[in-house]
Give the backbone structure.
Amino acid sequence: MRSLTTLILLTIYLTATGQPSPAKKESWFRADTSYAYNGKSQKPLTNYSYTWIDTEVKYSDSTGKGIIIQNSLPRGNGYIDPTGKTSVYGIFWTRVINETTTPLELTINFPADSFAIPTLPDSYLKLFLPPGTKTLEESSYNYGVTDLESFLDTGLNKPTMLQRTINPKEECLFYIGAVPGAGCRASFVLKGQDLFYRINIIPNLLIPCGQIVFKK
């Protein structure tokens, strides 16, 4: 009885002070997939060029305001590592658009670990955030990412991280690399505040990789 009374009093207090109820924290967003598969499925949510956009998902609250996450198709090239092993990498970009009236903190962490690929024995997937200058050049085989091969030679086995504040009505565009990754489909998935990465080379795996947290 005391626990129930405490919960009721806490709910009344949070309502009175305008603070969100803890029970609603993880269910504030719902996914509204309004665009998918390179323009062949549904109406786009924004006015961007959709030539290289693979999926676009809106996570919104009851007012319809929220976050849009766009994921690109891959571009990439062959790569020979310092040991002479040949592989292929894929470069993707993701755009996160903040349609709310509150700044948010975007954090992405890809570990140094690799992930076994069940369909390819003795093969492993490595995800990373490419370094160097990045300009969205859709005509370029790697979307304009520079200094990529030197990173693949020396930094592929290190963790990579990105942290950005996205203000209301602003956006953040960043790049993701995958080895192997050319020809794959990939996207970020938001569950509550937690971000996961899905890539179809391992279709049943959601890789924990960061958060989207609204700043108070």
In short: Residues 84 and 153 are 11 Å apart (CA to CA). The first helix runs from residue 2 to 16.
